[in-house]
Amino acid sequence: MIGRQSFDSAVDVGSIQVVERYANENSRFVANKYGEATKGKVWFVPGEVEGYAQENIVFRDYKGAPDREQPIAAYAMKRDERTGVPVAMEARYFDSWGQRIEEMRDDVRRYGMKEAYKRYKSSYATIVNTQTIDATKSQNILDRVLGLQTRNYLLQSVVTIVPAPNLVLTVDEFTEGSVQAKVPELKSPQLVTHSETRTVKTLWKNVAHLAESEEARLMGFHNTMALRQDRALRDMQRLLNDQIKTELETADATGGNNWGTLNAGTDTSTNDPTADIQPRVTAIRGNGFNVDYMAMHDKVAARLSMNSFIRGGGAQGLPGNLLGDRFTITGLPPVTVDQALTATIAIIGSRDAVWLGRGPTVVAAYDEDVVGYSGWMVKEWVLPYKAQNGAIQKLTGIAS
Fold first, then answer.
1. Contact of 228 with 216, CB cutoff 8 Å
2. What is the DSSP letter of 163?
3. Is pLDDT at 345 greater than 80 in this prediction?
4. Cα angle vertex 104, ends 102, 108, to 5°?
5. Helix (H) or strand (E) holding 365
6. Between these two residues, 111 and 1, which has the higher pLDDT value?
7. Distance between terminal CA atoms of the chain?
8. Which of 61, 86, 84, 65 is nearest to 76 (CA)?
9. Alpha carbons 15 and 45: distance in angstroms, whole number
10. Residue 251 confidence (pLDDT)
């Protein structure tokens, strides 16, 4: 960028000088109020600077000296061709510093001093700054960050995903009557009844929005934005998982027996889980659906897998396929374990029971050069919807 500055007469290109510059008096007031007054100081260093031979260079101020690692611009005095008298300073900026100054001035001209100050102040509300990253800024620390661990979220595997690019989930349902059996000779058969219904749902929007200051990015040891983006995407999965859980748990409930209760003086179980599970499976199949899964909290899964009716007496230990987030037990639907579910219930169902309307996912990154921060966001339109009430059942009271 090529620019001209209005402070030309204050600078002598033949000597090193430190000059304090702000867009206007309001900028000076804000800088002093927030303890950032030194950010307005720049050094004018003439000629023969190492790495910039024969150029006059403007540097940022760092602890009262030119910061040689932060050159701002090359500058030169423009002189009158007839008299040789300096009339202006021309600067070639190495970054967007000059542009930021001009934009700050534009804000004051466009919105007035009060509104420009309000915009400046509000932009710091939830932005990661140098105070936020102070504990992990560039020092000799381990290249490993705690607090970013997340578990697997598995409830999407028990629903049917339906594309909804227009943000609308449309569920059409046909209801058919029964065919007629053993129709007598010369008798007209009855017509099979048929009806249709349509349900329309609008998807909702889940959003993750991150921002961090330029200083945080430059001073941080870790690539904070990349780490936070990764965590935000995982947290979007957690949020959707919780929303699916809420929809699953609207299923019709039936009370069961505590699978963890033991007979006094023995290690054998009092209640047989299959006595609770099998009637629910039979009911769903009777409604015309396959049973694809059982979903439960890990505490409920432990009660099921350790139950002596399931283990065959309790003496021989657990088969290997009872470990992990998914396992199978002979004669029962496959089990999916997810901690989002309530710790006293089990969901038994078909994947046709709950539909997950999935719309577009939008990822956007932007820079706010005037204030000095970068932002990133991801927006996802989704909607879990229980489309088939007869395809899902909830067992309650089976663990404590």
1. no
2. E
3. yes
4. 115
5. strand 354-368
6. 111
7. 69
8. 86
9. 7
10. 96
Rounded CA separation 123/132 (Å): 15
Mean pLDDT of the region 4-23: 46
Residue 265 binned pLDDT confidence (cut-offs 50, 70, 90): confident
Which helix (H) or strand (E) segment holds residue 160: the answer is strand 160-163
Domains of the chain are 2-122 (no CATH), 125-178+193-400 (3.90.1690.10)
CB atoms within 10 A of CB 315: 8
Do 262 and 307 contact (CB within 8 A), yes or no? no
CA atoms of 9 and 206, how far apart (whole Å):
55
User: What pLDDT shows up at residue 121?
Assistant: 53
The DSSP code for 324 is S
Q: How far apart are CA 66 and CA 59, in angstroms?
A: 6
Among 380, 388, 218, 361, CA closest to 288: 388
- DSSP class of residue 192 equals P
Question: What value does the mean pLDDT of the chain take?
Answer: 76
Q: What is the Cα–Cα distance from 319 to 304, expressed in whole angstroms?
A: 13
287, two tokens: 């409604």
DSSP letter (8 states) at residue 44: E
Residues 64/48, Cβ–Cβ less than 8 Å: no
Average of pLDDT values for 328-337? 91
CA atoms within 13 A on the CB side of 157: 14
Where are the strands (E) in 177-279, listed by range?
Answer: 194-202, 204-213, 253-255
- C-alpha distance from residue 290 to each of 33, 95, 352, 353 (Å): 67, 63, 9, 10
Max intra-chain CA distance, the chain: 122
Closest CA to 149 of 207, 222, 231: 231
- Report the range of poorest mean pLDDT among 60-64, 83-87, 272-276: 83-87
Which among 102, 3, 4, 92 has a CA at the least distance from the CA of 56?
92
> The whole model's pTM is what?
0.60
Amino acid at 137: K
Contacts of 26 (CB under 8 A, 6+ apart): 108, 113, 116, 117
Reported in sequence order, the residue ranges of 342-398 that DSSP labels E, i.e. its strands, are 345-349, 354-368, 373-386, 392-396
